[in-house]
Amino acid sequence: MISELAAFAGGVLFGTAGVKALGSKDAKKAYAHTAAFGLRVKDSVMKAVTEVKENANDILAEAKEINEKKATEAQEKAEQSVIEDAAVANSVNY
């Protein structure tokens, strides 16, 4: 019982000292510097994310252009094949 009471009293004393230490001017200054560092890191990460998104959008646009070009080429090839088949059919009929 005494050891439990001593542990409780020690915890209260340690907690009170911790609260006072956390509330000191030096601690607040350290928190402000840590928060400022965190904000700088956040800004840096957001800049990198924006660059990655821009690059991804550029790649996507180029990929769409490639697919459109290939589709146009395939369509032209199919049309040319139809024209050639019609020419062969007409020459056989004469």
Derived from helix and strand composition plus strand pairing, the structural class reads mainly alpha
For the report, how would you describe the main beta sheet?
A: none
What ranges have pLDDT less than 50 throughout 5 or more consecutive residues? none
Radius of gyration over C-alpha positions, nearest whole angstrom = 37 Å
Question: Per DSSP, what share of the residues sits in E-state strands of 2 or more residues?
Answer: under 5%
- Summarize model confidence as the mean pLDDT: 84
Shape type: rod-shaped
Q: What's the oligomerization state? A: single chain
Helix content: over 70%
Beginning-to-end CA distance, first to last residue? 118 Å
Number of helices: 2
Q: Which sequence of SSEs, written as H and E, runs from N to C?
A: HH
Number of strands: 0
Structure, explained:
With 94 residues, this protein is an all-alpha fold. The protein is 96% helix and 0% strand. The radius of gyration is 37 Å and the shape is rod-shaped.
